[in-house]
């Protein structure tokens, strides 16, 4: 591993104040992780956030759904690039022998149902569980307005006692939501308007240079990431590297973590940064810290690991950018 001075993990901004954490959790996460040859002997639990992590929802509405509270307006959904490949990886038979996958979102149930359908399609039934805002123990006022939420993994571990801090990974773009069990959190860059616009610009730029300066939210309301390519699919750009590759990196990280017996220990020791920085040269003296996704070399390193993991399972690398039918 690299000894680059930029990897001074002890100097990172510490949102993870150990004094505020459960002592038992601190003990578990402080224990080093060991390599395991057979991942199925130490199953993992992957907990996926939705909005900002797997998709982008602009503040525009598309249709109404109905639940016990009446009509609920649902927002437009743009899944993140490589959702098709991530889905195939998570539900591949060889992955499912060592990984349970669930969704935990702070959105309300009708919205969660819609987002899950867009990301996982007819394979949503293979998720271990789907948890929404009604699982966050909010009072009625906080439930119906934008408020700070925390995902306490202890609640998961009570529901699924075969899992613990040693086996659980929360993929979320918010550090606040993971503050009770920070060393089980894979902090990823939020997928928002700017990232969506960049992806669409790369997709359309060469053939529609006159549209580059226009607002993507106006130009491409009907452009989404579909689970499968339709008849109106757009020709891929020369290189898939142009698109947001965080989900490929997540696949790479998962494929590494499957061989660890203590997820929290591996993450706390800087596993993502130390592995991803392999081969880095040069200085600058900056600190990478938790925002590993801001360092292009590290993102690319893990994305390439993700591509290798897909290839090993004969899964195609599909960004999934396509126009709606």
UniProtKB/TrEMBL annotation:
Signal sequence, start to end: none
Location of this chain's protein in the cell: Mitochondrion inner membrane
Keywords recorded for this protein, A-Z: Mitochondrion, Protein transport, Transit peptide, Translocation, Transport
Keyword S-adenosyl-L-methionine included in the entry's annotation: no
Gene3D superfamilies: HAD superfamily/HAD-like
Principal location listed in the UniProt entry: mitochondrion
Residue intervals of the FCP1 homology domain: 39-223
Membrane topology: Single-pass membrane protein
SUPFAM superfamilies documented for this protein: HAD-like (SSF56784)
A Pfam family reported for this protein in Swiss-Prot or TrEMBL: NIF
Quaternary structure and partners: Component of the TIM23 complex.
Family membership: Belongs to the TIM50 family.
Role noted for this protein: Essential component of the TIM23 complex, a complex that mediates the translocation of transit peptide-containing proteins across the mitochondrial inner membrane.
Protein name in UniProt: Mitochondrial import inner membrane translocase subunit TIM50
UniProt organism field: Lentinula lateritia
Lineage, broadest ranks: Eukaryota, Fungi, Dikarya, Basidiomycota, Agaricomycotina
């Amino acid at each position: 591993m690299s000894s680059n001075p930029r990897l001074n993990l002890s100097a990172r901004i510490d949102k993870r104040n150990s004094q505020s954490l459960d002592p038992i959790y601190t003990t578990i996460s402080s224990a080093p992780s060991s390599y395991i040859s057979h991942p199925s002997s130490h199953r993992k639990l992957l907990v996926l956030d939705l909005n900002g992590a797997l998709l982008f929802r602009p503040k525009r509405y598309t249709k109404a759904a109905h639940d016990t509270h009446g009509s609920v307006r649902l927002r437009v959904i743009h899944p993140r690039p490589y959702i098709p490949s991530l889905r195939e990886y998570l539900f591949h038979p060889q992955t499912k022998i060592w990984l349970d996958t669930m969704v935990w979102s702070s959105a309300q149930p009708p919205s969660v149902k819609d987002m899950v359908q867009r990301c996982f399609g007819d394979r949503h039934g293979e998720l271990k569980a789907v948890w929404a805002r009604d699982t966050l123990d909010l009072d009625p006022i906080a439930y119906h307005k934008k408020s700070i939420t925390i995902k306490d993994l202890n609640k998961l571990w009570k529901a699924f006692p075969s899992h613990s801090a040693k086996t659980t990974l929360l993929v979320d773009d918010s550090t606040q939501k993971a503050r009770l069990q920070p060393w089980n959190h894979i902090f990823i860059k939020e997928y928002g308007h700017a990232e969506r616009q960049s992806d669409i610009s790369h997709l359309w730029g060469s053939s529609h240079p006159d549209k580059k300066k226009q607002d993507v939210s106006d130009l491409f309301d009907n452009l989404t990431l579909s689970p499968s390519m339709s008849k109106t699919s757009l020709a891929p750009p020369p290189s898939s590297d142009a698109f947001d590759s965080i989900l490929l990196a997540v696949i790479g990280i998962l494929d590494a973590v499957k061989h660890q017996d203590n997820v929290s220990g591996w993450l706390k020791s800087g596993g993502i940064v130390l592995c991803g920085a392999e081969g880095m040269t040069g200085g600058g003296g900056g600190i990478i810290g938790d925002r590993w996704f801001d360092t292009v070399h590290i993102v690319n390193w893990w994305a390439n690991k993700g591509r290798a993991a897909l290839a090993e399972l004969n899964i195609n690398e599909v960004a999934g950018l396509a126009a709606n039918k």
